[in-house]
Protein backbone atom coordinates (compact mmCIF):
# COMPACT_ATOMS: atom_id res chain seq x y z
CA UNK A 1 0.00 0.00 0.00
CA UNK A 2 1.43 3.31 -1.00
CA UNK A 3 -0.96 5.58 0.85
CA UNK A 4 0.95 7.67 3.37
CA UNK A 5 -0.59 9.22 6.44
CA UNK A 6 0.33 12.67 7.67
CA UNK A 7 -0.65 15.22 10.28
CA UNK A 8 -1.99 18.35 8.58
CA UNK A 9 -3.44 20.27 11.50
CA UNK A 10 -2.91 20.68 15.22
CA UNK A 11 -4.91 22.58 17.80
CA UNK A 12 -4.85 22.86 21.55
CA UNK A 13 -6.27 24.89 24.40
CA UNK A 14 -4.17 26.48 27.09
CA UNK A 15 -3.31 24.03 29.82
CA UNK A 16 -4.41 25.08 33.29
CA UNK A 17 -4.56 23.50 36.72
CA UNK A 18 -8.24 24.41 36.95
CA UNK A 19 -10.69 25.62 34.29
CA UNK A 20 -13.84 26.63 36.15
CA UNK A 21 -14.86 29.07 33.42
CA UNK A 22 -15.41 26.47 30.71
CA UNK A 23 -17.02 23.06 30.49
CA UNK A 24 -15.37 20.03 28.92
CA UNK A 25 -17.30 20.39 25.66
CA UNK A 26 -16.07 23.95 25.27
CA UNK A 27 -12.49 22.80 25.80
CA UNK A 28 -12.95 20.21 23.06
CA UNK A 29 -14.62 22.71 20.73
CA UNK A 30 -11.75 25.15 21.13
CA UNK A 31 -9.00 22.65 20.34
CA UNK A 32 -10.97 21.24 17.39
CA UNK A 33 -11.69 24.68 15.95
CA UNK A 34 -8.01 25.55 16.15
CA UNK A 35 -6.93 22.29 14.50
CA UNK A 36 -9.47 22.70 11.69
CA UNK A 37 -8.35 26.27 11.04
CA UNK A 38 -4.71 25.13 11.13
CA UNK A 39 -5.42 22.41 8.56
CA UNK A 40 -7.69 24.62 6.51
CA UNK A 41 -10.59 22.20 6.58
CA UNK A 42 -14.32 22.49 7.24
CA UNK A 43 -15.28 19.62 9.53
CA UNK A 44 -18.82 19.52 8.14
CA UNK A 45 -17.56 18.89 4.62
CA UNK A 46 -13.91 17.86 4.55
CA UNK A 47 -13.40 15.49 7.48
CA UNK A 48 -14.47 11.90 6.82
CA UNK A 49 -14.16 10.45 10.32
CA UNK A 50 -13.87 11.72 13.90
CA UNK A 51 -12.11 9.95 16.77
CA UNK A 52 -12.05 10.93 20.43
CA UNK A 53 -10.16 9.26 23.26
CA UNK A 54 -11.60 9.22 26.75
CA UNK A 55 -12.38 7.12 29.79
CA UNK A 56 -15.94 7.38 31.13
CA UNK A 57 -14.86 7.24 34.76
CA UNK A 58 -12.51 10.20 34.35
CA UNK A 59 -15.17 12.18 32.49
CA UNK A 60 -17.82 11.66 35.14
CA UNK A 61 -20.56 10.27 32.94
CA UNK A 62 -21.32 7.07 31.12
CA UNK A 63 -21.09 6.24 27.42
CA UNK A 64 -18.80 9.15 26.59
CA UNK A 65 -19.05 8.61 22.83
CA UNK A 66 -22.71 9.67 22.92
CA UNK A 67 -21.66 13.11 24.16
CA UNK A 68 -19.10 13.75 21.47
CA UNK A 69 -20.38 14.64 18.02
CA UNK A 70 -21.69 18.18 18.49
CA UNK A 71 -18.58 19.91 19.86
CA UNK A 72 -16.20 18.39 17.32
CA UNK A 73 -18.29 18.90 14.18
CA UNK A 74 -19.25 15.26 13.85
CA UNK A 75 -23.05 15.16 14.11
CA UNK A 76 -24.39 12.39 11.85
CA UNK A 77 -20.89 11.54 10.64
CA UNK A 78 -18.64 8.51 11.24
CA UNK A 79 -17.51 9.01 14.84
CA UNK A 80 -16.11 6.77 17.56
CA UNK A 81 -14.39 6.92 20.92
CA UNK A 82 -11.30 4.95 21.84
CA UNK A 83 -11.18 4.20 25.55
CA UNK A 84 -7.51 4.97 25.99
CA UNK A 85 -4.69 7.43 25.51
CA UNK A 86 -4.85 9.84 22.59
CA UNK A 87 -2.03 8.04 20.78
CA UNK A 88 -4.36 5.06 20.35
CA UNK A 89 -6.69 7.44 18.54
CA UNK A 90 -3.85 8.44 16.22
CA UNK A 91 -3.23 4.75 15.52
CA UNK A 92 -6.91 4.25 14.74
CA UNK A 93 -6.88 7.24 12.39
CA UNK A 94 -3.73 5.85 10.75
CA UNK A 95 -5.49 2.58 9.99
CA UNK A 96 -8.64 4.25 8.68
CA UNK A 97 -6.59 6.34 6.25
CA UNK A 98 -4.08 3.65 5.34
CA UNK A 99 -6.82 1.22 4.34
CA UNK A 100 -8.36 3.79 2.02
CA UNK A 101 -11.60 3.92 3.97
CA UNK A 102 -11.08 7.58 4.92
CA UNK A 103 -9.01 10.45 3.54
CA UNK A 104 -9.22 13.00 6.35
CA UNK A 105 -9.66 12.08 10.03
CA UNK A 106 -9.63 14.13 13.22
CA UNK A 107 -8.44 12.87 16.60
CA UNK A 108 -9.21 14.59 19.87
CA UNK A 109 -8.26 13.90 23.49
CA UNK A 110 -8.48 16.07 26.57
CA UNK A 111 -8.33 16.34 30.32
CA UNK A 112 -10.93 18.05 32.49
CA UNK A 113 -9.53 16.24 35.48
CA UNK A 114 -10.19 19.18 37.81
CA UNK A 115 -13.89 18.24 37.55
CA UNK A 116 -13.14 14.91 39.26
CA UNK A 117 -13.23 15.16 43.04
CA UNK A 118 -12.34 11.53 43.77
CA UNK A 119 -9.49 10.70 41.40
CA UNK A 120 -7.80 8.37 43.91
CA UNK A 121 -10.95 6.32 44.33
CA UNK A 122 -11.53 6.17 40.59
CA UNK A 123 -7.99 4.90 39.94
CA UNK A 124 -8.37 2.32 42.71
CA UNK A 125 -11.29 1.00 40.68
CA UNK A 126 -8.75 0.05 38.04
CA UNK A 127 -7.17 -2.54 40.33
CA UNK A 128 -8.39 -6.15 40.26
CA UNK A 129 -11.54 -6.08 42.40
CA UNK A 130 -11.14 -9.54 43.93
CA UNK A 131 -7.44 -9.94 44.76
CA UNK A 132 -5.89 -6.48 44.69
CA UNK A 133 -8.25 -3.58 45.35
CA UNK A 134 -9.39 -4.87 48.76
CA UNK A 135 -5.76 -4.74 49.95
CA UNK A 136 -5.72 -0.97 49.47
CA UNK A 137 -8.29 -0.43 52.19
CA UNK A 138 -11.72 -1.10 53.53
CA UNK A 139 -14.15 -2.19 50.87
CA UNK A 140 -17.31 -1.46 52.78
CA UNK A 141 -18.86 1.81 51.81
CA UNK A 142 -21.07 2.90 54.64
CA UNK A 143 -23.37 4.87 52.37
CA UNK A 144 -23.44 6.26 48.94
CA UNK A 145 -24.55 9.45 47.30
CA UNK A 146 -28.29 9.75 47.00
CA UNK A 147 -28.93 7.16 49.66
CA UNK A 148 -32.01 7.83 51.78
CA UNK A 149 -29.86 6.80 54.73
CA UNK A 150 -28.40 10.28 54.76
CA UNK A 151 -30.00 12.39 57.42
CA UNK A 152 -29.70 15.97 58.53
CA UNK A 153 -27.67 14.79 61.49
CA UNK A 154 -25.36 12.71 59.31
CA UNK A 155 -25.29 14.37 55.91
CA UNK A 156 -23.67 13.15 52.75
CA UNK A 157 -20.00 14.18 52.50
CA UNK A 158 -19.61 17.34 50.45
CA UNK A 159 -16.61 16.12 48.53
CA UNK A 160 -16.34 12.60 47.24
CA UNK A 161 -18.51 9.60 47.59
CA UNK A 162 -16.88 7.93 50.54
CA UNK A 163 -15.76 8.83 54.03
CA UNK A 164 -13.09 6.17 54.12
CA UNK A 165 -9.84 7.67 55.22
CA UNK A 166 -7.72 4.58 55.16
CA UNK A 167 -7.77 3.59 51.52
CA UNK A 168 -4.22 3.84 50.26
CA UNK A 169 -3.76 6.19 47.31
CA UNK A 170 -3.32 4.19 44.08
CA UNK A 171 0.03 5.83 43.28
CA UNK A 172 1.56 3.41 45.81
CA UNK A 173 2.08 1.17 42.79
CA UNK A 174 4.41 3.74 41.22
CA UNK A 175 6.40 3.81 44.45
CA UNK A 176 6.83 0.03 44.31
CA UNK A 177 7.79 0.13 40.65
CA UNK A 178 10.26 2.96 41.21
CA UNK A 179 11.93 0.97 43.97
CA UNK A 180 12.23 -2.01 41.63
CA UNK A 181 13.57 0.20 38.82
CA UNK A 182 16.20 1.84 41.02
CA UNK A 183 17.39 -1.51 42.32
CA UNK A 184 17.53 -3.36 39.01
CA UNK A 185 18.97 -0.47 36.97
CA UNK A 186 21.32 1.07 39.52
CA UNK A 187 19.67 4.45 38.92
CA UNK A 188 19.69 6.83 41.89
CA UNK A 189 16.93 8.94 43.43
CA UNK A 190 19.04 12.00 42.58
CA UNK A 191 19.02 11.08 38.90
CA UNK A 192 15.23 10.82 39.02
CA UNK A 193 15.17 14.20 40.78
CA UNK A 194 17.19 15.65 37.90
CA UNK A 195 14.43 14.55 35.50
CA UNK A 196 12.07 16.81 37.44
CA UNK A 197 14.58 19.68 37.43
CA UNK A 198 15.17 19.34 33.67
CA UNK A 199 11.54 19.03 32.64
CA UNK A 200 10.28 21.85 34.83
CA UNK A 201 13.09 24.02 33.40
CA UNK A 202 12.20 23.01 29.82
CA UNK A 203 8.64 24.07 30.56
CA UNK A 204 9.74 27.71 30.84
CA UNK A 205 10.19 27.71 27.07
CA UNK A 206 6.80 26.15 26.32
CA UNK A 207 3.92 28.60 26.59
CA UNK A 208 1.56 25.62 26.89
CA UNK A 209 3.12 24.46 30.16
CA UNK A 210 1.50 25.16 33.51
CA UNK A 211 4.06 23.82 35.99
CA UNK A 212 7.38 25.37 34.97
CA UNK A 213 9.73 25.95 37.90
CA UNK A 214 13.34 26.67 38.61
CA UNK A 215 14.21 24.11 41.22
CA UNK A 216 17.22 22.05 42.24
CA UNK A 217 17.84 18.38 42.88
CA UNK A 218 17.88 19.28 46.58
CA UNK A 219 14.35 20.71 46.32
CA UNK A 220 13.10 17.43 44.87
CA UNK A 221 15.08 15.32 47.32
CA UNK A 222 13.73 17.44 50.15
CA UNK A 223 10.09 16.99 49.19
CA UNK A 224 8.41 14.40 51.36
CA UNK A 225 8.18 10.72 50.58
CA UNK A 226 4.60 9.92 49.64
CA UNK A 227 5.24 6.39 48.41
CA UNK A 228 8.91 5.74 49.13
CA UNK A 229 11.14 6.15 47.20
CA UNK A 230 8.66 8.33 45.28
CA UNK A 231 8.52 11.90 46.55
CA UNK A 232 5.93 14.62 46.12
CA UNK A 233 7.90 16.44 43.42
CA UNK A 234 8.55 13.20 41.49
CA UNK A 235 4.84 13.10 40.68
CA UNK A 236 3.38 15.18 37.86
CA UNK A 237 0.55 17.45 39.00
CA UNK A 238 -2.81 17.40 37.22
CA UNK A 239 -3.81 19.77 34.45
CA UNK A 240 -6.81 20.49 32.19
CA UNK A 241 -6.60 20.96 28.44
CA UNK A 242 -7.57 19.56 25.05
CA UNK A 243 -5.60 18.64 21.91
CA UNK A 244 -6.85 17.86 18.41
CA UNK A 245 -5.01 16.62 15.30
CA UNK A 246 -6.22 16.44 11.73
CA UNK A 247 -4.67 13.61 9.74
CA UNK A 248 -4.91 13.06 6.02
CA UNK A 249 -3.72 10.95 3.18
CA UNK A 250 -0.67 12.49 1.51
CA UNK A 251 -2.42 13.49 -1.73
CA UNK A 252 -5.20 15.30 0.15
CA UNK A 253 -2.60 17.08 2.26
CA UNK A 254 -0.85 18.33 -0.85
CA UNK A 255 -4.13 19.51 -2.36
CA UNK A 256 -4.75 21.51 0.81
CA UNK A 257 -1.32 23.02 0.44
CA UNK A 258 -0.16 22.24 3.96
CA UNK A 259 3.31 21.17 5.03
CA UNK A 260 2.70 17.60 6.12
CA UNK A 261 4.38 15.73 8.96
CA UNK A 262 4.26 12.02 8.25
CA UNK A 263 3.10 9.45 10.77
CA UNK A 264 5.58 6.81 9.65
CA UNK A 265 5.41 4.24 12.43
CA UNK A 266 2.97 3.19 15.09
CA UNK A 267 2.89 0.40 17.66
CA UNK A 268 0.98 -0.53 20.75
CA UNK A 269 1.09 -3.28 23.37
CA UNK A 270 -0.66 -4.33 26.56
CA UNK A 271 0.99 -6.10 29.49
CA UNK A 272 -1.04 -8.52 31.62
CA UNK A 273 -3.02 -6.63 34.26
CA UNK A 274 -2.00 -9.14 36.95
CA UNK A 275 0.59 -7.62 39.27
CA UNK A 276 1.56 -11.19 40.13
CA UNK A 277 2.91 -12.09 36.72
CA UNK A 278 3.74 -8.83 35.06
CA UNK A 279 7.17 -7.34 34.83
CA UNK A 280 8.09 -3.94 36.22
CA UNK A 281 10.33 -2.91 33.35
CA UNK A 282 7.85 -1.29 30.92
CA UNK A 283 7.81 -4.19 28.45
CA UNK A 284 4.75 -2.55 26.86
CA UNK A 285 7.03 0.30 25.76
CA UNK A 286 9.66 -2.07 24.37
CA UNK A 287 7.11 -4.03 22.35
CA UNK A 288 5.28 -0.99 21.02
CA UNK A 289 8.53 0.74 20.04
CA UNK A 290 9.75 -2.36 18.19
CA UNK A 291 6.53 -2.43 16.19
CA UNK A 292 6.75 1.29 15.39
CA UNK A 293 10.46 1.13 14.49
CA UNK A 294 9.84 -1.72 12.09
CA UNK A 295 7.05 0.17 10.36
CA UNK A 296 9.11 3.37 10.15
CA UNK A 297 12.26 1.57 8.98
CA UNK A 298 14.20 2.58 12.07
CA UNK A 299 17.05 0.19 12.77
CA UNK A 300 19.17 2.39 15.00
CA UNK A 301 16.85 4.58 17.07
CA UNK A 302 19.69 6.32 18.90
CA UNK A 303 21.04 7.60 15.61
CA UNK A 304 17.86 8.02 13.62
CA UNK A 305 15.65 9.81 16.14
CA UNK A 306 16.33 13.53 16.54
CA UNK A 307 13.89 14.22 19.36
CA UNK A 308 11.72 12.17 21.70
CA UNK A 309 8.89 12.70 24.12
CA UNK A 310 8.34 9.85 26.56
CA UNK A 311 5.86 9.46 29.38
CA UNK A 312 7.24 11.11 32.54
CA UNK A 313 4.20 11.19 34.78
CA UNK A 314 6.51 9.94 37.50
CA UNK A 315 10.15 11.07 37.26
CA UNK A 316 11.63 7.56 37.05
CA UNK A 317 9.28 6.73 34.16
CA UNK A 318 11.25 8.97 31.76
CA UNK A 319 14.46 7.04 32.39
CA UNK A 320 12.72 3.66 32.46
CA UNK A 321 10.94 4.40 29.17
CA UNK A 322 14.11 5.63 27.44
CA UNK A 323 15.77 2.34 28.31
CA UNK A 324 12.70 0.32 27.34
CA UNK A 325 12.51 1.83 23.85
CA UNK A 326 16.18 1.28 23.16
CA UNK A 327 17.45 4.86 23.45
CA UNK A 328 19.59 4.03 26.46
CA UNK A 329 21.16 0.81 27.58
CA UNK A 330 19.64 -0.69 30.73
CA UNK A 331 20.69 1.39 33.71
CA UNK A 332 22.34 4.12 31.65
CA UNK A 333 19.54 6.63 31.11
CA UNK A 334 20.21 8.35 34.45
CA UNK A 335 23.87 8.74 33.59
CA UNK A 336 23.01 10.10 30.13
CA UNK A 337 20.74 12.63 31.78
CA UNK A 338 23.45 13.80 34.18
CA UNK A 339 25.87 14.15 31.27
CA UNK A 340 23.44 16.40 29.39
CA UNK A 341 22.61 13.87 26.69
CA UNK A 342 18.86 14.46 27.14
CA UNK A 343 19.14 18.24 26.79
CA UNK A 344 18.30 20.30 23.70
CA UNK A 345 21.81 20.01 22.31
CA UNK A 346 22.38 16.47 23.60
CA UNK A 347 22.32 13.19 21.69
CA UNK A 348 18.65 12.50 22.50
CA UNK A 349 16.71 15.65 23.36
CA UNK A 350 13.97 14.32 25.63
CA UNK A 351 10.76 15.98 26.76
CA UNK A 352 11.68 19.40 25.47
CA UNK A 353 8.01 20.30 25.97
CA UNK A 354 8.50 20.06 29.71
CA UNK A 355 6.74 16.71 29.76
CA UNK A 356 4.01 15.88 32.21
CA UNK A 357 6.21 17.11 35.06
CA UNK A 358 6.40 20.56 33.47
CA UNK A 359 3.08 20.79 31.65
CA UNK A 360 0.98 18.70 33.98
CA UNK A 361 -0.61 15.27 33.82
CA UNK A 362 -3.32 15.58 31.19
CA UNK A 363 -4.44 11.94 31.53
CA UNK A 364 -5.85 10.60 28.24
CA UNK A 365 -4.38 13.59 26.40
CA UNK A 366 -0.87 12.78 27.60
CA UNK A 367 0.23 10.87 24.49
CA UNK A 368 -1.26 13.59 22.31
CA UNK A 369 0.70 16.21 24.27
CA UNK A 370 3.85 14.23 23.45
CA UNK A 371 2.86 14.02 19.79
CA UNK A 372 1.94 17.72 19.73
CA UNK A 373 5.46 18.62 20.80
CA UNK A 374 7.00 16.36 18.14
CA UNK A 375 4.82 17.91 15.40
CA UNK A 376 5.65 21.42 16.63
CA UNK A 377 9.37 20.60 16.62
CA UNK A 378 9.31 18.93 13.20
CA UNK A 379 7.48 21.95 11.81
CA UNK A 380 10.26 24.11 13.25
CA UNK A 381 7.77 26.10 15.34
CA UNK A 382 9.19 25.40 18.81
CA UNK A 383 10.88 28.79 19.25
CA UNK A 384 13.44 28.81 22.04
CA UNK A 385 13.15 25.11 22.71
CA UNK A 386 13.53 24.21 19.01
CA UNK A 387 15.90 21.30 18.41
CA UNK A 388 18.08 22.09 15.41
CA UNK A 389 17.46 20.08 12.24
CA UNK A 390 14.81 17.87 13.79
CA UNK A 391 13.66 15.50 11.04
CA UNK A 392 12.44 12.40 12.87
CA UNK A 393 10.73 12.31 16.27
CA UNK A 394 9.06 9.82 18.56
CA UNK A 395 6.15 10.13 20.98
CA UNK A 396 5.59 7.44 23.57
CA UNK A 397 2.53 7.02 25.77
CA UNK A 398 1.64 4.96 28.82
CA UNK A 399 -1.92 4.58 30.07
CA UNK A 400 -0.92 5.45 33.64
CA UNK A 401 -1.40 3.79 37.01
CA UNK A 402 -2.17 0.93 37.34
CA UNK A 403 -1.94 -0.04 33.68
CA UNK A 404 0.80 -1.77 31.73
CA UNK A 405 -0.32 -0.54 28.33
CA UNK A 406 1.29 1.88 25.97
CA UNK A 407 1.82 3.09 22.43
CA UNK A 408 4.58 4.64 20.33
CA UNK A 409 4.32 6.87 17.27
CA UNK A 410 7.14 7.93 14.95
CA UNK A 411 6.82 11.13 12.92
CA UNK A 412 8.93 12.39 10.01
CA UNK A 413 9.26 15.71 8.29
CA UNK A 414 9.14 16.14 4.53
CA UNK A 415 8.99 13.41 1.98
CA UNK A 416 11.48 11.04 3.60
CA UNK B 1 -9.81 30.81 23.27
CA UNK B 2 -11.99 30.63 20.22
CA UNK B 3 -15.09 32.16 21.78
CA UNK B 4 -15.98 35.80 21.38
CA UNK B 5 -17.66 35.93 24.76
CA UNK B 6 -15.62 34.85 27.74
CA UNK B 7 -16.08 34.87 31.46
CA UNK B 8 -13.81 37.49 32.91
CA UNK B 9 -15.23 37.88 36.41
CA UNK B 10 -13.78 35.08 38.56
CA UNK B 11 -16.64 35.31 41.03
CA UNK B 12 -19.35 34.40 38.53
CA UNK B 13 -18.57 30.91 37.09
CA UNK B 14 -21.08 28.45 38.48
CA UNK B 15 -20.99 24.70 38.91
CA UNK B 16 -23.18 21.82 39.88
CA UNK B 17 -22.05 19.22 42.44
CA UNK B 18 -22.80 15.83 40.94
CA UNK B 19 -22.01 12.40 42.21
CA UNK B 20 -21.86 9.03 40.58
CA UNK B 21 -23.52 6.10 42.23
CA UNK B 22 -21.51 3.10 41.18
CA UNK B 23 -21.77 0.05 43.38
CA UNK B 24 -20.97 -3.41 42.20
CA UNK B 25 -21.29 -7.03 43.12
CA UNK B 26 -18.04 -8.67 42.05
CA UNK B 27 -18.10 -12.43 41.46
CA UNK B 28 -14.96 -14.11 42.71
CA UNK B 29 -15.17 -16.48 39.75
CA UNK B 30 -14.48 -20.20 39.63
CA UNK B 31 -10.78 -19.86 40.47
CA UNK B 32 -11.41 -17.18 43.09
CA UNK B 33 -14.13 -19.24 44.80
CA UNK B 34 -11.81 -22.20 45.02
CA UNK B 35 -9.03 -20.05 46.49
CA UNK B 36 -11.19 -18.32 49.07
CA UNK B 37 -13.24 -21.37 50.07
CA UNK B 38 -9.94 -23.13 50.75
CA UNK B 39 -8.65 -20.12 52.71
CA UNK B 40 -11.74 -20.19 54.94
CA UNK B 41 -10.73 -23.63 56.19
CA UNK B 42 -6.94 -23.75 55.91
CA UNK B 43 -3.99 -21.46 56.63
CA UNK B 44 -2.46 -22.11 53.23
CA UNK B 45 -2.99 -20.74 49.71
CA UNK B 46 -4.01 -22.55 46.53
CA UNK B 47 -2.06 -22.13 43.30
CA UNK B 48 -2.53 -23.58 39.81
CA UNK B 49 0.13 -24.87 37.40
CA UNK B 50 -0.03 -24.59 33.62
CA UNK B 51 0.11 -28.09 32.11
CA UNK B 52 2.12 -26.82 29.15
CA UNK B 53 4.73 -24.35 30.42
CA UNK B 54 4.73 -25.28 34.10
CA UNK B 55 4.24 -21.73 35.38
CA UNK B 56 2.57 -21.85 38.79
CA UNK B 57 0.02 -19.06 39.17
CA UNK B 58 -0.99 -17.35 42.37
CA UNK B 59 -3.60 -15.92 42.55
CA UNK B 60 -4.63 -19.17 40.86
CA UNK B 61 -6.23 -19.10 37.43
CA UNK B 62 -8.26 -21.40 35.23
CA UNK B 63 -6.10 -20.64 32.20
CA UNK B 64 -2.50 -19.83 31.34
CA UNK B 65 -1.94 -16.34 29.95
CA UNK B 66 1.16 -17.44 28.01
CA UNK B 67 -0.08 -20.73 26.50
CA UNK B 68 -3.75 -19.74 26.44
CA UNK B 69 -4.79 -23.22 27.59
CA UNK B 70 -6.98 -24.60 30.39
CA UNK B 71 -5.46 -25.44 33.75
CA UNK B 72 -7.29 -28.60 34.93
CA UNK B 73 -8.27 -29.46 38.51
CA UNK B 74 -5.41 -31.89 38.96
CA UNK B 75 -2.95 -29.05 38.40
CA UNK B 76 -4.07 -27.16 41.51
CA UNK B 77 -1.84 -27.36 44.58
CA UNK B 78 -1.62 -26.19 48.15
CA UNK B 79 1.28 -23.83 48.97
CA UNK B 80 2.43 -22.12 52.13
CA UNK B 81 1.02 -18.65 52.79
CA UNK B 82 4.46 -17.10 52.88
CA UNK B 83 7.04 -15.65 50.57
CA UNK B 84 9.70 -13.06 49.85
CA UNK B 85 9.09 -9.35 49.27
CA UNK B 86 9.72 -8.46 45.61
CA UNK B 87 8.92 -4.74 45.92
CA UNK B 88 7.50 -2.49 48.61
CA UNK B 89 6.61 1.09 49.35
CA UNK B 90 5.46 3.02 52.38
CA UNK B 91 2.31 4.92 51.50
CA UNK B 92 1.71 8.15 53.42
CA UNK B 93 -1.53 9.42 51.90
CA UNK B 94 -5.01 8.08 51.33
CA UNK B 95 -7.06 8.07 48.16
CA UNK B 96 -8.13 11.68 48.78
CA UNK B 97 -4.56 12.84 49.29
CA UNK B 98 -4.94 13.26 53.04
CA UNK B 99 -2.33 11.81 55.41
CA UNK B 100 -3.02 8.24 56.46
CA UNK B 101 -3.47 7.85 60.18
CA UNK B 102 -0.52 5.47 60.05
CA UNK B 103 1.81 4.90 57.10
CA UNK B 104 0.97 1.67 55.28
CA UNK B 105 3.64 -0.64 53.87
CA UNK B 106 2.33 -2.08 50.62
CA UNK B 107 4.28 -4.98 49.12
CA UNK B 108 4.28 -7.41 46.28
CA UNK B 109 5.18 -10.77 47.81
CA UNK B 110 6.59 -13.60 45.71
CA UNK B 111 4.81 -16.61 47.18
CA UNK B 112 7.06 -19.61 47.92
CA UNK B 113 6.83 -22.60 45.55
CA UNK B 114 5.05 -20.52 42.91
CA UNK B 115 5.86 -18.13 40.06
CA UNK B 116 3.26 -15.63 41.23
CA UNK B 117 2.89 -12.97 43.86
CA UNK B 118 0.26 -11.51 46.14
CA UNK B 119 -0.30 -7.85 46.89
CA UNK B 120 -0.37 -7.35 50.65
CA UNK B 121 0.21 -5.04 53.57
CA UNK B 122 3.27 -5.65 55.73
CA UNK B 123 3.61 -4.93 59.42
CA UNK B 124 7.14 -4.77 60.73
CA UNK B 125 9.34 -2.92 63.18
CA UNK B 126 12.07 -2.71 60.53
CA UNK B 127 12.49 0.92 59.52
CA UNK B 128 14.34 0.33 56.23
CA UNK B 129 12.58 1.80 53.24
CA UNK B 130 13.65 -1.17 51.14
CA UNK B 131 12.35 -4.48 52.46
CA UNK B 132 13.07 -6.49 49.32
CA UNK B 133 14.24 -10.00 50.03
CA UNK B 134 12.58 -10.08 53.43
CA UNK B 135 10.77 -13.36 54.16
CA UNK B 136 7.22 -12.78 55.34
CA UNK B 137 4.20 -14.92 56.21
CA UNK B 138 0.52 -14.15 56.08
CA UNK B 139 -1.31 -13.33 59.29
CA UNK B 140 -4.86 -14.57 58.79
CA UNK B 141 -8.09 -13.88 60.59
CA UNK B 142 -9.17 -16.50 63.11
CA UNK B 143 -10.87 -19.29 61.15
CA UNK B 144 -14.28 -18.69 62.64
CA UNK B 145 -14.22 -15.08 61.44
CA UNK B 146 -13.17 -15.69 57.85
CA UNK B 147 -15.59 -14.63 55.14
CA UNK B 148 -13.88 -15.72 51.94
CA UNK B 149 -12.43 -12.42 50.73
CA UNK B 150 -9.00 -10.81 50.71
CA UNK B 151 -9.90 -9.33 54.07
CA UNK B 152 -9.18 -12.77 55.55
CA UNK B 153 -5.49 -11.96 54.98
CA UNK B 154 -4.92 -9.29 57.62
CA UNK B 155 -1.30 -8.52 56.70
CA UNK B 156 2.11 -10.14 56.29
CA UNK B 157 4.86 -10.10 58.89
CA UNK B 158 8.53 -11.10 58.87
CA UNK B 159 9.34 -14.59 60.15
Textual characterization of the structure:
The complex is a heterodimer of chains A (416) and B (159). Chain A is α/β, with parallel strands linked by helices. Chain A has a domain at 5-114 and 237-413: 3-Layer(aba) Sandwich (Peroxisomal Thiolase, Chain A, domain 1), CATH 3.40.47. Helix content of chain A is 33%, strand content 16%. In chain A, the strands form 2 sheets. Chain A has a 9-stranded mixed β-sheet. Chain A has a two-stranded antiparallel sheet with strand order 5-6. The radius of gyration of chain A is 21 Å and the shape is globular. The two termini of chain A are 16 Å apart. The model of chain A is unreliable at 142-147 and 157-164 (pLDDT under 50). By secondary structure, chain B is mostly beta strands. Chain B contains 1 helix and 8 strands. In chain B, the strands form 2 sheets. Chain B has a 5-stranded antiparallel β-sheet, with no helix packed on it. The model of chain B has no long low-confidence stretch (mean pLDDT 93). The interface between A and B is large, with 63 and 57 residues.
Amino acid sequence: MSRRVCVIGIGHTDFNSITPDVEWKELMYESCQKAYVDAGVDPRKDIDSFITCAEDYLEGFSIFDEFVPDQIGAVLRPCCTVCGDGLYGLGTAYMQIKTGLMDVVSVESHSKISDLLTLGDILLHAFDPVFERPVTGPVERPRYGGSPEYTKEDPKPLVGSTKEKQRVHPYFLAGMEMQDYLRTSGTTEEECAEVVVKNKMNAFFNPLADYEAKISIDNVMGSEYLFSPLKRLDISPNVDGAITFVLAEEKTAKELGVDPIYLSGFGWSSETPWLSTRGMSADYATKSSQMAYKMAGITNPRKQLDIVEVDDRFSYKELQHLEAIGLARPGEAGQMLMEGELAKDGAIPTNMSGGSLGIGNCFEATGMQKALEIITQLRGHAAKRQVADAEVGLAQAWRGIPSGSGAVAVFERGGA
Amino acid sequence: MTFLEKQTDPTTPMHWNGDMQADYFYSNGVAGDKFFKHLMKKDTFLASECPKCGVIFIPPRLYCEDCFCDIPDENWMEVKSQGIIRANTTAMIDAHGDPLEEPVIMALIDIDETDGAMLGRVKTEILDMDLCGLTVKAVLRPKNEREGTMKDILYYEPY
